Amino acid sequence: MKNVPQISVEEAAAMVPHGAVLMAGGFGMTGSPVHLLHALAQIGVGQLTIISNNVGEPGLGGGRLLRNGQIKKAVGSFFTSNPEAVQAVHEKRIEIELMPQGTMAEALRAGGAGIGGFFTPTSAGTLLAQGREVRQINGVAQVFVNGLWADVAFVRAHRADTAGNLVYRMTEQNFNPLMATAASLVIAEVEEIVPVGQILPEQVMTPGIYVDYLVQAHTTLEELGSSAGTARSRRPVSQTRMNMARRAFAELSRGDVVNLGVGIPTLVADLISPEDGIILHTENGLLGVGPAPASGGALEYPVNAGKQPVTALPGASYFDSAASFAMIRGGHIDVAIMGGLQVDEQANLANWAVPGKPLLGVGGAMDLASGAKRLIITMTHTSRSGESKIVPHVTLPLTATGAVDMVITDLAVFKFVNGQLALTELMPGASLDEVRAKTDAAYVEMLN
Question: Rounded to a whole number, what is the distance in angstroms from the first to the last CA of the chain?
Fold first, then answer.
């Protein structure tokens, strides 16, 4: 077997040329090659194009590169977690290319497999499809996306042997195995390097053929940021929000595979117990999510898509982001519960952007909205300014067309029955007159 050279982080950073296209793995702070990125921020190489799920994550080396003015362009799915990234885009100091998270994962897999591109239903009809080829395939509008390739990839693994074979730890897989296949030069930052033979062939997740150099670096609690531990302040949850979460929970059945979005949907997880037989899926690579641990953090436990430590139930499995979104687009997720900004009479959804603000954070919303078998939206009935969020036609940037099955608001429950919006329930404390006054969309009343 070949022997992969072991180098320092400084030597690795020096291999990135000015103007390079650089991939950096990780989902938030989990599985991020922070030491390599920090070293790169020290040497001043610039005009970089960086491909990473969330470039501007506070504390990541990508955030330091951004602050130093070393990034020319960023390609990713979520940039809003760092106000500095938002400001840089607003001031036009960097160019961005926003990609749905699952589309980005598949583009990495295509690039690494030598495939020029692919068609996906994700983002069809939305702003992110503008300027791209769209075809009808089996009656479904699908958008063409090019495969991604980089000059250099920085990846993070838990363990490596001297032949460069990599093993990832729990949800640290995310984008790392994909990026390891999709660059001319691959440098892996790992926690432990062992002799050949100490990693069994069936344990190898990235074969050493892809890896050019190894760097040994230990991750600390400080470097994990918000994922370091479970001790975190939590705002009191209103009874109104819990009512919506409980109503959404009532829609779930034993054996359902369910993905929960941020906001009100996150509260549903607190209502689910292992005895319910509901299988939680998180798009960063875990099927079989359990409750939050009593103590500890991301050094001991996996993290969910909200970057919070969770447990894994017996029978759970880990996988990379491409496999995760293949589950979603392939119709293997029974229910997705997501937040919303607008839903209209045609079951169209807007939930990722508002006018006047940079379009910086789509995440996995488009994939989930178009790929889940059933889509439930939980949201307040009106905006802060009192405008109805259930409207005749979506006016905000579109997430998915004809995708919504059910809407749960603080006032009412709506379902789409034979393609028509129908009011089926009133929420506790709400009156029919109030719902009528605060709903702009046309609907039929099917109250019991």
Answer: 70
Q: Say if residues 215 and 187 touch (Cβ distance below 8 Å).
A: yes
Write down the H helix ranges in 171-263: 176-179, 239-249
Q: What is the dihedral of CA 206, 208, 212, 216, to 10 degrees?
A: 70
Catalytic residue among 106, 189, 223, 283: 283
Q: How far apart are CA 58 and CA 64, in angstroms?
A: 8
Question: What's the chain's length in residues?
Answer: 448
Taking alpha carbons only, the member of 306, 327, 329 closest to residue 171 is: 306
Q: Which residues contact 339 (CB under 8 A, 6 or more apart)?
A: 261, 262, 263, 264, 265, 351, 377, 378, 379
pLDDT digit string (tens) for 133-154? 999 999 999 999 999 999 999 9
Active site residue 283: yes
Helix count (H) and strand count (E) of the chain? 11, 24
Q: For 36-82, write each residue's pLDDT tens digit.
A: 999 999 998 999 999 998 765 545 556 788 888 899 998 988 876 66
Domains with residue ranges and CATH for the chain: 9-218 (3.40.1080.10), 239-445 (3.40.1080.10)
pTM over 0.90: yes
Q: Is the pLDDT assigned to residue 432 strictly greater than 60?
A: yes
Residue 87 has pLDDT above 70, yes or no: yes
CA distance 47 to 45: 7
